[in-house]
Design a protein that fits this description.
heterodimer; A: mainly alpha; ABC transporter involved in vitamin B12 uptake, BtuC; 2 domains; globular; B: 327 residues; mainly alpha; two-stranded antiparallel sheet
Chain lengths: 368, 327
């Protein structure tokens, strides 16, 4: 008789039930404010996929969420909670912007874009490195330091944008627009070039980079020595030491990778969409990455699916604003919070009951 | 002499602003102190305070009474604290994840409910004066103001605040008394250091931590009510703006002790007051005062403290670890 839950229940049924509960509660809230939840769902789905260009927007949001979701996931595997994805994405974008703004007129685009992307990764990684180093060598708790670094990033960006980078003669704190050669090609342009007509959207080639990042994270975590070390430290730090792994080193390595992944949000936003440096382009993607990683169970396949779901919610949420008097895109934030609650904090709530049911069921089957 | 009087007045006014900014921080830091000393990490101070601010403004608007608003704020915030307890004490979920969930949930829910109930884009309607906490003028404040130095101090610092500011100030000796001078406080500190020892003594770890979270919820609610019904006259979107995190930083900066945490709140409040005063001021040799950077100082100082470069912040030993009773 099997004493433990089989994998299909543990990683299939229970997580699905958790997400279902999150959406049920969200539905109840919609009922509470006097609207029909099914109608709202209809509007969300139509808004995310049904209109010309809406799929492009959905995938553009998905791109950002894949980056931040992977960032949170890599840290999770090392047993670390990186709440700093928001700040790392912000500083990553600063790196992208600084490189692109200083080189865009001097160098050809095919050189500026990779350099700017690299800078995004390096800046994001650097912003994660300091909390990681402090955690590894000074014992300061990474949750608190990464929260502080989010605020430090925000303050630094306000200072730089308002006092240093702002385009002379401008009122709003923005840089000048980058030369068009440094822009990431839009997907609708590429498809248009080969004769496929698509409605313009902010979706650009950085989604390919996000796909590559998924493959990279999968290879890293499950197919390399470093990944093995990261998972070992995450599961049991003492065991890792006996296995000859230096946890301090692994804390720093995993956080640096995490920060670099978050930094690529800057690539999508600055080089792909806005084409200039500005404030608040991270728009909470770093925090949504936490929901994405929890829902996707820190696996690249799960993260892609969860990013698609949240990408669709982001895009569909804008449609809520038009269709309803009383519900707005803020409902998506509620859903996000509920997903973090049910798939994260209450992830084990159903476990004991499921185990009891399973044992009773398998005992009955054996008796028969 | 006139120079000194001007300087003194400026100093007293800045102190006055400091107290106004620090009051919600103090309440929140004391809230966090109860939770964290019992071994439960509370990232969710921000969310509970925001929910409290919304509940206070909504209830005060509907009933016309600031006190009912305050009670509503405390009730809602306590309910969220119990949710936190349900997730991480009863179900041993991750405490940080639970805190983040509460923060995100509240950020969305306050707007969704605000729009549905008041149709003002997520704000609550502005409160009439009688539905707010008004400043209390202490006896003879205006007469004594004429006396140099001490008179202004009395008129600006001691007198002229709303009742919640005095509650915030009194919350510190209250917290100190509960944590260090009562049996509950002794057990609270013990359960944060060594829950198994408390369990061995026949005291329920679960119950003790839930009781600690009751205090956390209540204090966060007061902090929220302060923001929306005392400091301003309505709830606005994201009105906590990171204050819950600053309070958490102050708690850590004060090494999880009431009086040092109070001083940290005052320091952070002072930095904020100074930054506000320096908005747009030209400083010779530097140019525009770097206001954003001054406002970031609390965060930077906390990181430096946590790194052990100025003293050492040692957290309660069992913090963040769910307690599993051995069989």
């Amino acid at each position: 008789m099997s004493r433990e839950l089989p994998a299909w229940i543990d990683i299939g049924v229970l997580p699905a039930l958790n997400i279902l509960m999150a959406f049920l509660v969200a539905g109840l809230i919609v009922l509470l404010v006097g609207e029909n939840p099914l109608e709202a769902l209809d509007v969300l789905v139509a808004g995310a996929f049904g209109y010309p260009g809406s799929l492009g927007y959905t995938l553009y949001y998905t791109t950002n969420l894949i980056f931040t979701g992977l960032a949170v996931a890599v840290a999770f595997h090392a047993g670390l909670f990186n709440i700093g994805g928001e700040g790392q994405a912000y500083i990553g974008g600063l790196g992208v912007g600084l490189v692109a703004l200083s080189l865009d007129t001097a160098l050809p685009g095919w050189l500026v874009i990779p350099l700017a992307g690299l800078a995004g990764g390096v800046f994001g990684a650097a912003w994660a490195f300091i909390p990681a180093w402090l955690q590894a060598h000074r014992g300061s708790h990474i949750v608190i330091t990464t929260i502080m670094f989010n605020f430090l990033a925000a303050a630094l960006m306000v200072h730089l944008m308002v006092n240093v980078i702002i385009e002379p003669g401008q009122m709003s704190p923005q840089s000048r627009e980058m030369a068009e050669t440094a822009w990431l090609p839009f997907v609708h342009e590429i498809l248009g070039g080969v004769g496929i007509d698509v409605t313009p959207s902010p979706l650009n080639v950085s989604i390919l980079w996000a796909a590559l990042a998924c493959v990279f994270v999968w290879l890293l975590i499950w197919r390399t020595r470093w990944g093995y070390a990261i998972r070992t430290v995450g599961k049991n730090e003492k065991a890792a030491v006996y296995a000859g792994i230096d946890p301090k080193r692994i804390v720093v390595v995993s956080m640096v990778i995490s920060g670099a992944l978050a930094g690529f949000v800057g690539l999508n936003e600055i080089l792909g969409v806005h084409h200039r440096l500005l404030l608040n382009f991270t728009a909470g993607y770093g925090f949504t990455g936490i929901a994405v990683a929890l829902m996707g169970r820190s696996h690249p396949v799960g993260i892609v699916l969860a990013s698609l779901l949240f990408g669709a919610l982001y895009q569909g949420g804008t449609e809520l604003d038009f269709e309803f008097q009383t519900i707005t895109r803020d409902l998506v934030v509620v859903i996000q919070g509920l997903v973090i609650l049910f798939s994260g904090a209450l992830a084990f709530m159903l476990h004991p009951a499921a185990l009891r049911l399973w044992r009773r069921w398998s005992a009955a089957r054996e008796a028969a | 002499m006139a120079d000194f009087a001007d300087f003194w007045l400026l100093f007293v006014l800045t102190l006055d602003a400091t107290i106004r900014v620090a009051a919600p921080l103090i309440l929140c830091a004391m809230a966090g102190l109860f939770s964290e000393r019992s071994g439960v990490v509370d990232i969710g101070l921000e969310g509970k305070m925001l929910a409290g601010a919304f509940a206070a403004a909504a209830a005060a608007y509907v009933t016309g009474s600031a006190w009912i608003g305050l009670l509503a704020a405390m009730a809602v915030s306590t309910a969220l604290a119990m949710l936190h307890g349900f997730a991480c004490i009863t179900h041993r979920g991750d405490q940080v994840v639970s805190g983040v969930a509460i923060n995100v949930l509240v950020a969305g829910l306050t707007i969704v409910l605000g729009i549905a109930w008041f149709s003002q884009g997520g704000q609550t309607p502005s409160l009439p004066a009688e539905a707010r906490f008004q400043s209390l003028d202490w006896p003879l404040a205006e007469t004594l103001r004429q006396i140099p130095v001490l008179g202004t101090l009395y008129a600006e610092i001691v007198s002229g605040h709303n009742v919640l500011v005095y509650v915030a100030v009194l919350s510190v000796p209250f917290t100190w008394w509960v944590v260090y001078r009562t049996r509950f406080g002794l057990r609270l500190r013990a359960v944060g250091e060594s829950p198994s020892a408390v369990d061995t003594a026949g005291i329920s770890v679960t119950l003790l931590r839930y009781r600690a979270l009751l205090f956390t919820g209540a204090f966060c609610g007061v902090a929220g009510a302060y923001l929306s019904t005392a400091q301003s006259a309505a709830f606005v979107r994201d009105m906590t703006a990171g204050k819950g995190y600053i309070a958490l930083a102050a708690l850590i900066f004060g090494k999880w002790r009431p009086v040092p945490a109070l001083l940290a709140c005052l320091l952070f409040g002072f930095l904020d007051a100074v930054a506000t005063r320096l908005q747009g001021v030209e400083i010779p040799g530097i140019g525009q005062a770097p206001v954003a950077l001054i406002q970031a100082l609390p965060y930077a100082l906390t990181v430096i403290l946590l790194a052990g470069f100025i003293g050492k912040a040692i957290a309660p030993k069992a913090i963040g670890i769910p307690y599993v009773k051995e069989r």
